[in-house]
Amino acid sequence: MKNETKDEIKFDHNGDGIDRRGFLKCMAWAGTGTLCVMKGGVLNSYSLSALAKLDPAAAMGELSFVQISDSHMGFNKPANPDVIGTLKAAIAKINALPGNPEFLLHTGDITHLAKPEEFDNVQQILKDAKVKEAFYVPGEHDVASDEGKEYLERYGRGTKGAGWHSFDKNGVHFIGLVNVVDLKAGGLGTLGHEQLEWLEDDLKGKKSSTPIVVFAHIPLWSVYPQWGWGTEDSAQALSYLKKFGSVTVLNGHIHQTMQKIEGNVTFHTAASTAFPQPAPGTADSPGPMKVPAEQLRSVLGITSVNFVRGQKALAVVDSNLSE
Amino acid sequence: MKRAIRIVGTGFLLVAGFNQAAGTWRGTKAEPVLVAAQQQQMATEVKIDNFSFSPATLEIKAGSTVTWTNADDIPHTVVSNDKVFKSKVLDTDQKFSFTFDKPGTYPYFCSLHPKMTAKVVVQ
Questions:
Q1: Smallest Cα–Cα separation from B53: which of B90, B82, B100, B99?
Q2: A22 interfaces chain B, CB cutoff of 8 Å
């Protein structure tokens, strides 16, 4: 592992028997990658460098899928003049994963300016991904130019409102939420009344043992409100998820991996495939972070997720593009 | 050489002073000159940089045109809270202008990054 020393795991749960308090505190920063496995309600997190020691069964489940985010097609500034190249590298990474992921989730900011040719480029590159399907939610960059018209024309089929939707795979219920439209001055991401009602209705009648995966662009937890990294009405959405034993929330937007466990909910943000952004509060603004060219791929990446039935386990693995 | 420049400078000031004086004393005839001068004074710029608008509060006179320029590596928008004006998405170095005819306070924000807020106060 080339960048092993860059892992910044503040709470190392490699040992057994972490109490619930430990989960609440758990916030792992991963420069290169973390594997989190929850078994019977107990979370273990490992640096990717420790993966070799893992039982292979723990890393492979009945359902595996991959998340990419923030491809920002069309971005051409010094932080990454070649977002096509790095997206292609991400797809190559996906295709090299052990066992083909069932499908791909893109958690938004597919494009930089929502131009048709930007969407076309992403579509073309994603054709090479060895996955059966792809599911999307928009980022603010995908909807700002035209109120999401172009996005919905391409990805809106079978969705509601601004593009929210749900589907089931292997007994896992997936919910794609949109928190990037109709944002209010001074505020954060917003789901809105109509979508919250839909969510409540969507979850009605689902057994509490059903594993839930929620994906949306802007984090559904308060990462750093000063930079807008949170969602105004996420608490209400999460209140509908309280009864479920296993909830995994996957987001993008902040261009870095971050994880938090709160009760039954694991929150995880994916890296961008385009450019990194600074850690909360470490810069004047959340603008693109320029790193030396040779380091760029170590701060971009993909996230793969494995679900192991009967173990309450969703194993989330981040890997960067240089590994 | 030095002396010649001073003479030219003085001459220019005299002409300007005369126009302004004419506008004040004689009314209509010189008015267009005054309006033009006022607009020139009031042309104002807002810079979008580091995910913020600067100045955050801009005070102008009615009839002034404000131009926003995005100096960030990330696109932003300029959107009035009360839907009085709304820019397209401004990529790096792109500009948006709006002329404020009526006095009032115009709060606005970036619809991509709504934490970015500022206002224009028109007197």
A1: B90
A2: no
A3: CB partners within 8 A, 6+ apart: A31, A32, A298, A320, A322, A323
Q: Is B80 on the interface with A (CB under 8 A)?
A: no
Q: How many residues does chain B have?
A: 123
Give the total number of structural domains in chain A.
1
Q: Are residues B78 and B106 in the same domain?
A: yes
B92 and B33 together in one domain: no
Which whole-number Å values give the CA distances from B35 to A156, B64, B67, in the listed order? 52, 11, 19
Give the up-direction half-sphere exposure of residue A192: CA atoms within 13 A in the CB hemisphere. 15
B/e letters for A79-107, b = 16+ CB within 10 Å, e = fewer, are: bbeebbebbebbbebbeebeeebbbbbbb
Looking from the CA of A88 toward its CB, the CA atoms found within 13 Å total: 6
For the question of an ipTM over 0.85, the answer is: no
Whether A185 has its CB under 8 Å from any CB of chain B: the answer is yes
User: What is the per-residue pLDDT across A252-295, written as a single tens digit (0 to 9) for each?
Assistant: 999 999 999 888 899 999 999 999 999 999 999 999 999 999 99
Question: Distance between alpha carbon A37 and the CA centroid of its chain, in Å?
Answer: 16
Decide: B78 and B110 in contact? Cβ < 8 Å: yes
For the full predicted model, state whether its pTM sits above 0.90.
Answer: no
Residues B73 and B18 in one domain: no
Is the previous residue joined to A101 through a cis bond, with omega within 30 degrees of 0? no
Contact at CB, A287 and B51, closer than 8 angstroms: yes
Q: Which is it for strands A212-215 and A172-176: parallel, antiparallel or unpaired?
A: parallel
